[in-house]
Design a protein that fits this description.
Shape of chain A: elongated
Oligomer: homotrimer
Radius of gyration of chain A: 17 Å
Number of strands of chain A: 8
Strand order of the largest sheet of chain A: 1-8-3-5-6
Largest sheet of chain A: 5 strands, antiparallel
Distance between the termini of chain A: 21 Å
Structural class of chain A: alpha+beta
Helix content of chain A: 10-25%
Chain lengths: 143, 143, 143
Amino acid sequence: MLIFAMPVVQERCEVQTKGKGTYEITRQIQETIDKSKINSGTVTIFVQHTSCSLTMMENAAPAARRDVERFFEQLVPENADYEHDDEGSDDMPSHIRMVLTRTNETVPIVDGKLQLGIWQGIFLFEHRRDPHRRKVTLTIIGE
Amino acid sequence: MLIFAMPVVQERCEVQTKGKGTYEITRQIQETIDKSKINSGTVTIFVQHTSCSLTMMENAAPAARRDVERFFEQLVPENADYEHDDEGSDDMPSHIRMVLTRTNETVPIVDGKLQLGIWQGIFLFEHRRDPHRRKVTLTIIGE
Amino acid sequence: MLIFAMPVVQERCEVQTKGKGTYEITRQIQETIDKSKINSGTVTIFVQHTSCSLTMMENAAPAARRDVERFFEQLVPENADYEHDDEGSDDMPSHIRMVLTRTNETVPIVDGKLQLGIWQGIFLFEHRRDPHRRKVTLTIIGE
């Protein structure tokens, strides 16, 4: 008899934010990969929200991240004349910033490691002013 | 001797649009997952077009979706001075709006269900004025 | 006796750019799929950089691509007042343009072929002025 467990590993985790900004989550993802024992494949990161998102970003220069955050403040301002404005002035811009970035990213795993470039990090992009506890699902598929 | 067939289920489906706007396709995707019997893994949704796209979005407030649609009308206007303008004034903005959103989304499946947040829906974003029949491919990988 | 060939194939390749612009990489990806013998599944394309990105785009009309490139030049100008400006005026706009497009795309494989629409191509979007040798990882998962 053969029992074959298909190599899919899923883990739900949470990311605490302090309000608007980018929060690196690369290390948590790598730790989940380490535990999974999967050596070669992909990890799909997914946020279960419509007012925060995911983005890859330069992980060395905090000024570069501040420029990204400022760009989105200007491109999708809080004070535009939104029809949907009953949940606060930062609500509708959050949805649009989410649409312009991503809810899921899929990153290769090679030799048990996230196959990132030296300056690449994976960030949760919080678009609301208040702190939030954000749910993230990791799905690792491979061998 | 055992030959193990990897659990990949693919289905092509079509989405009829009535012109510009966002069309929720979450239920059709869930129905395909139900038929696939895959319990744990991911589904990759892919549109085979360059003038419509995919986005996750708030699925409760239609006003929020109208704000998103209006934002893209303003950010990528029809009346800009495009070089490629021989297929109508809504053609080139369609391509740019597609580039700014997504052609593919990968969503986790947990316990046979799309692992979405309570307000999250998956939408086809039609960028052309005329109705179109859009081709979508679903690829479910898991166990 | 058990014969189990796990269906994950990974390949790293490089794309030489001549500076800013979009470079089609569809054929290279298809060739890697051909070699992998995987018939049904997905390929995840991933660039290991934060100053170039990936996008799907119309592959027939070069004017359409020039319009996309021009749009990003205007939306994310070089001469904005960026805080992070020590690596040249094209550096910070590169990061923002990457954030607005993608670092990874996942495309279905059906009958051994990329399941693209007739006008769809996969492009590396170079955001820096100088030529670069860009690292791309392909992960093919399927059966």
